[in-house]
Write a structure and sequence with these properties.
Layout lengths: L5 H11 L3 H28 L6 H11 L5 E3 H8 L3 H13 L3 E5 L7 E5 L1 H19 L6 H17 L4
Antiparallel strand pairs: 1-3, 2-3
Helix pairs in contact: 1-2, 2-6, 3-6, 4-5
Length: 163
């Protein structure tokens, strides 16, 4: 553990440099980036033994929550807000591991459906349960703080056209 908060120290330097107006924003952005690193480290420690990345886990869960356990590739990209090439890469790996299967769309020959296999559903559930127990339930801040931060981030996302 560090003897001081390096982000707080950076904020102080920002203010001393005459950037007071930007100091709180810099502190917020840097704090969010560091929080993301901390959370991804915890998540990776749980998913790595299951041979999953967070991106592959997200696809498995998106499919698991769909009505028929399958979605078009384009819908996966849209819902996860990632580039089509990224979806293709993730689905390639999931398919290679027999966790999903590509199928032709019955009504649109140009579209490809990604179908969740029983093995994929089982692994996704196992990963979700582990993440729930080890990360999502015990983030280290109160439920009130979680709600407040989530609302603030939703406002930030909305004001930047994310949804």
């Amino acid at each position: 553990m560090l003897p001081l908060d390096p982000i707080e120290e950076a904020k102080s330097h920002w203010e001393q440099s005459g950037w007071e107006e930007a100091a709180t924003g810099m502190e917020f952005v840097t704090s969010i980036m560091r929080a993301q690193q901390i959370l991804m480290s915890r998540i990776d420690a749980i998913l790595r033994p299951l041979e999953l990345t967070f991106a592959r886990f997200e696809v498995l869960m998106l499919l698991a929550f769909s009505r028929r356990g399958e979605l078009p590739m384009s819908v996966i990209g849209s819902r996860l807000q990632v580039h089509p090439a990224s979806v293709t890469s993730v689905v390639d790996r999931l398919e290679r591991d027999n966790l999903v299967e590509r199928r032709r769309h019955p009504d649109d020959r140009r579209a490809v459906l990604v179908h969740l296999s029983d093995e994929g559903r089982s692994l996704g559930t196992k990963a979700a349960e582990a993440l729930n127990a080890e990360v999502f339930i015990s983030l280290g801040i109160s439920a009130e703080q979680l709600l407040s931060v989530s609302e603030a981030i939703a406002d930030l996302r909305h004001s930047n056209g994310d949804f």
